[in-house]
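Each lists chain and fold; for instance:
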Amino acid sequence: MEHNEIALEAQVSRKVMATRLAVGLVQGLLLYWLYAASRDVAWPAAAPYLMVPLLTVLLILPVLLVSSLGHLAPRQAAVWLLSALAVLLALALHDVWRGANSYPLLSNWDNKPVYSPSMMLVFFSCVFFFIAHALVMAGAQDGKRIASYNTYFEVAWKLAIQLLFSAFFVGALFLVLHMGATLFMLVKLKFLHELLENSWFNVPVICTAFSCAMHVTDVRPSIVRGIRTLLLVLMSWILPVAVVLVTGFLCTLPFTGLTALWETRHATSVLLFTAAVLLVLVNAAFQNGQAIVALPLRVGARTAAILILPIVMVGMYALGLRVVQYGWTSDRVIAAACLLVASSYAIGYLWAAYQYDTWLRPLAMVNIFTSFLVLAVLLALFTPIADPARIGVNSQMARLAKGKIIASKFDFRYLRFEGGRYGQAALEELKRSTGPDAALLQREAAAVQALDNKQRWQAPVRSTAPVSVAANMTVWPAGAQLPASFVAQKWDAMQDDRKPECLTSRNGKCDAFVLVLGGDGKQQVLLVPEQNAGQGRLFAAGADGKWTVVATPRYSDIACKAVLDKLRKGEFNLVDRPYKDLNVGGRRVEFELSATPEEECSKIR
């Protein structure tokens, strides 16, 4: 073993080390060039079909090259890297073409767009090429298309630890650099502090340091192997805890029912995460299938292998309910793809768990087969084959056409911000609608198309014409009536963050306190939502007769149950403030008493 490590170090050192550092430096310089182009809105930042592929390739391909050096023959490396380049270009160009998540980012005063790959593309590309690179490296090491499971195990875990510790090395390096900058600042020397504020320094240093760390971890396989062994042993002893918790959860379902699970609206993601944790922990105990494992871990691993299937089945049922109720969306398509992969693992692991004489040996075959399945699923998701945006838009439009959702409840914003080019085409189709709801569909489609990307995360302004404001209010004191102008006002023009939900939704309910707080005898209305007292607002009519928000009560006051009870009973009076406010240059400075909200609420009798 020691002789092999010396030979490996000699093989991947010297010229290979210099090449790796050069690759990291060139990667950093090119990434800084793209960053500067985005910052200055210069070429190629505003050319999506050039910027997105360049950025995607520069983020991933150099890492594959650094890892391949010294392990793949020049011909093998060339074939693999050219294949990876072709796949990256295809994925990036499709990401731009579909336009689902690679939105233009407004980055300068002229509002000129610059482009970047979608976060989904970057994340899943990293997953795709981690698996693919491990498969290629293992195959090259064994000289076979399908390597032995032991080789896959060694290569994949080595690569994972290399990436993890390389990222840690970069973080530690910059921590030390910032420490040095702080030390120099103590003696009034700012050069290092100013240097660390410049992206032309930071980006190349990050990439070069990452390549350096990849090399150091590569030439010390014994260290990597020791870290891997320690990590797997520690993780494997978490397995019994996870088995007990998951078993307890599954045993409670017959008594609690599934209703509470569905009401969370994120049950599928939690169940998928649980299945992934069990998979990782089972493999931590199994390792390469040749490790000596204590009896509690063997029992725990076999039990966990059985538990994965019911977890995945509950997740599939949860997703199925959402799809039946609300149709497909991009997120649900991705969740379905994850469940497909998870079900492959679950069935295979269940089969392996019942092979009592082999200590889960069939897991090796299951893991290899499912790795190729993951690659196929990812390629399908990020190409037109199974584009989540296309499937989601088609599903939502079909639900609208079949009357499964009425026009007034249709999510036009989904088409605009998550449907990409398919959503834009659907909105154009809606603008040409005919039939009883044609006017509404045309108006809403045109309105949502006019929104810019900055408004994606803003709450939509909802029409309130069909909402009876009076029906949503419980008016206090008992017998009081809301001002007629307040009830008649059209609230759709007011921003949603300025008004409680009871003014816009049939499901929103509020306590409405009719008060006279000013010396002019005019009425004000204090609205306190039943579900979120923190959205309490005080409304008053202006000179033009329009009701607007004039004040917001302190949350600590309005959230106090005793305060609301007293207000409902009319047990209050008007008092002057204990300390007058200051007027500083037209700005009011208020003084609050120093008691805590809990102390103030507890004083109420």
About this structure: The first helix runs from residue 2 to 12. Confidence is low (pLDDT under 50) at residues 101-110, 462-466. The chain is about 60% helix and 5% strand.
